[in-house]
Write a structure and sequence with these properties.
Blueprint lengths: L1 H8 L16 H14 L3 E13 L2 E7 L6 E7 H5 L10 E11 L4 E11 L2 H18 L17 E6 L3 H13 L5 E6 L6 H13 L6 E5 L14 H9 L4 E4 L9 H4 L2 E2 L3 H8 L3 H35 L1 H4 L1 H43 L2 H6 L4 E4 L24 E6 L2 E6 L10
Parallel strand pairs: 3-5, 6-7, 6-8, 8-9, 9-10
Antiparallel strand pairs: 1-2, 1-4, 2-3, 4-5, 11-12, 12-13
Helix pairs in contact: 5-9, 6-7
Length: about 425
Amino acid sequence: MSEDVAAATTVPASAAETSPDNPWPLQLLSQKLKMHIDRAPAAWVEGQVIELNRRGTNAYLTLRDIDAEISLPASVWTNVLDRQETPLERGSRVVALLKAEFWLKTGRLNMSVKDIRPVGLGDLLARIERLRHALAAEGLFSDARKKRLPLLPHRIGLITGRNSDAKKDVLRNAALRWPAVEFEIREVAVQGNTAVAQVIAALRELDAHPEVDVIVIARGGGALEDLLPFSNEELIRAVSDASTPVVSAIGHEADRPILDDVADLRASTPTDAAKRIVPDVVEELARVRQARDQLRRGVTRLVERETDRLASLRSRPVLASPEVMVSIRHDDVERLKGRSQSAVTTAVVRAADQLVHLKAQVRALSPQKTLDRGYAVVQLADGGSAPGTRRDVVRHPDQAPVGTPLAVRVAGGRFTAESTGGQEAAED
């Protein structure tokens, strides 16, 4: 007994303490694994049934992830399967309550299905709508995030199924509308568990391509289950983060995948996408011709209008006969000259007449005229004052007593005389 206790006390307490010289018994490892796995809670998981085999009261199935190449075998009691209203088949989409179990004797890990439920269309639609509302609340569908498509893309990135009708529709209709259009094509899985990863990889590759101006994700419709990858949250966020405009062309009117809401442009079909991403060369040429005709008519009208204005200006008298302006001014100058000369002549004649009249008046008032009428001017010969002074005119006999020398001026000249006395003038 003491030896057994001693041996037990020498067993390492943890796996990290084991060594080649002091290992764990296999039983202890199995027990610890079972204890650890038993503590793990059961979990609801979603997957697709790809294998289902019944063996008596037990059934064995394999579940595969919806969006990745990961599968997991599990066992289930047949009574759990029998509770389903619709028998499960291969390809069914289910949610299952899985509990990990460890078989101590064999060392095998088994996934036990405690409950399983098929996922119906109603459940899928409800789940899609919940995700749609959650992403909308984040603003991923806002018009402000929508990018404008180029008028004429240099190169179009196309993500579509391998050799699919959607690919042919896009290529054919785009080439018919614009023969010089170029494509960068990525063929991927557009349904199944690898679709999401392949579409995201192609999207990121084309988004990084320097010559790709717009990206089209095209698929020619399908059942709701087939379109589920285009409502995958990871794909939706990848489209939202793309810097290149993305066009959704899934071609399913009844149930719109979330890709239609986040894309910068939604096309109803791949054919519609081709029509909306490239212009019609015939229509564009017609528009060019129409624009040229409108421009030509506008220029013609402008030239005609300006020609009429020029003709109107040239028809005015001043431009029709420019010399008229000079001749009119010449006539005005001549008329003004005549009026000036006439006014000057009249003024001169009038002034001359006035001068003659004034001369006559001056002459009439001149002392010479008085002398000519027989009068004489008598002055004192010596002036009665200092030499050089004016001679005094004799106005009274008292000024010339007897013997006073006198100077007498008559009309014909001067002579001297001597006063013999005088008398005052008699009063009348």
